[in-house]
């Protein structure tokens, strides 16, 4: 089976590696840095976004491997509108409950855990070693970074970024577009579109002139 990955980055390498381990036997990249960028590690870069859109019929699956949540959203929605066969990539060592759901275009990496009745939206990243506990909801195009932990019943809005090793207390809600800094310990609800850092997490105020 042939898989096209849009986004030839370090993150893309991890997606490609997981895809091969999951059984995709031919993995290639497309990236808007082409033709200056023709390789991404051991994988070939065949063209830019336009080239991929023109050749969608050649691939059994397409996934966007771009770390920036908003750019990933734009690219995935454009591919969907063009009729791409969008798919998810799940590393074989990930543990996903049969009672959890994972949306199309999502990447789940090595040793991640998604427990019973959790719901992962479209175009998400559940990164290496991340834990999404029972009854959590992760909004579309969000990113749960390596070794981050969402305790039971946590709800993330769309386009949320939870930094590496951060922890979110059970039943907490994080508003859309918010960022949880690396190592933060979130004990109460987080408004939309803010950044929180520290233990306990607090809103990072913008710098004053």
TrEMBL record:
Q: Which InterPro entries match?
A: AcTrfase_PglD-like, Hexapep_transf_CS, PglD_N, Trans_hexapeptide_repeat, Trimer_LpxA-like_sf
* SUPFAM superfamilies named among the record's database cross-references: Trimeric LpxA-like enzymes
Q: For the PglD N-terminal domain, which residue ranges apply?
A: 2-74
What's in the keyword line of the UniProt record?
Answer: Repeat, Transferase
Q: Which family does it belong to?
A: Belongs to the transferase hexapeptide repeat family.
Residue numbers annotated as active site? 134 (proton acceptor)
Family annotation (CDD domains): LbH_AT_putative
Q: What is the lineage of its organism?
A: Bacteria, Pseudomonadati, Pseudomonadota, Gammaproteobacteria, Pseudomonadales
Any idea what this protein is called?
UDP-perosamine 4-acetyltransferase
GO molecular function of the protein, one example? transferase activity
What stretch or stretches form a coiled coil here? none
């Amino acid at each position: 089976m042939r898989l096209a990955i849009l986004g030839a980055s370090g993150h893309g390498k991890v997606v490609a590696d997981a895809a091969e381990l999951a059984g995709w036997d031919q993995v290639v990249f497309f990236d808007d840095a082409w033709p200056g960028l023709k390789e991404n590690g051991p994988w070939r870069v065949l063209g830019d976004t336009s080239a991929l859109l023109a050749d969608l019929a050649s691939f059994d699956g397409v996934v966007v491997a771009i770390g920036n949540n908003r750019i990933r959203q734009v690219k995935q929605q454009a591919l969907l509108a063009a009729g791409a066969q969008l798919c998810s990539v799940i590393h074989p060592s990930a543990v996903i409950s049969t009672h959890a759901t994972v949306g199309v275009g999502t990447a789940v990496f090595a040793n991640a855990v998604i427990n019973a009745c959790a719901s992962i939206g479209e175009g998400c990243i559940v990164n290496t070693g991340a834990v999404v506990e029972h009854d959590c909801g992760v909004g579309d195009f969000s990113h749960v970074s390596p070794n981050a932990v969402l305790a039971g019943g946590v709800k993330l809005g769309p386009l949320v970024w939870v930094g590496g090793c951060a922890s979110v207390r059970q039943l907490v809600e994080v508003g859309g577009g918010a960022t949880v800094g690396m190592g933060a310990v979130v004990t109460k609800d987080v408004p939309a579109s803010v950044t929180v850092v520290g233990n306990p997490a607090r809103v990072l105020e913008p710098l004053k002139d």
